[in-house]
Specification:
Length: 244
Amino acid sequence: APRHTAVRSTRQMIALAVFLPCFTPRAATSISRPTRLPVWPAWQGVALGVASQLPGPFRSWADRLEDAFGGRVAPIQFDPREADPFILLVHHRHAFRPLDFLRPLFSAAIMPEGFPAHPHRGFETVTYVLPGRAGLVHRDSEGCRMRYGDGAVQWMTAGRGMLHEEMWDTDASVDAELYQLWVNLPPRSKLVPPRVQLLLPSTAPAGGAAAQVQREGSTPVRTGRVIDEVSADGAVRVRGIARP
């Protein structure tokens, strides 16, 4: 089963590790193109989605424009026989531009800028915001409120059940990008009390702009640091969120 999910940056491969792996390369068993859903901004995502279906170099051009300007969410469902305990990986790349004249209409009539209150139970979500990008403002039924972005990680254990909402932190930046991994809990932990953990980038000051706990809930928020390591040749950088 895979132990980490890797994403391409401009110069390096950044790995979001659930268990910090070694730097030994491993061959991919398969490569697939996930579904891309057009949203935030939807009109731009639709245009680029159509362009990506055209022949010739249009797909490559559309992918580069999506990376640069946003407009997509790409969910990747895992086969539990191959990837347990990982359930789902979602990549978000969005832009919230003040001069986007369709943005207020879309937000009011179709979909708000984020994910209003909804229930989770029996699994965990690990949300990693890429450095330099805006993240989310979190609230939950346990009373917790926080904001996190710019290299921070939120690790939320739903356990026996909780309501939470994640709304885009549009005051932090125009550009938002993150990866969210859903992790199944073992049977003995399915009904544990809900809790939230917040991991700050290794160089970020406590209470800085990267992440802030604005209100504690019924269970105090555990805080820590993202583990940041680079291979000897500098080719691979690993950001780990737990050690074995």
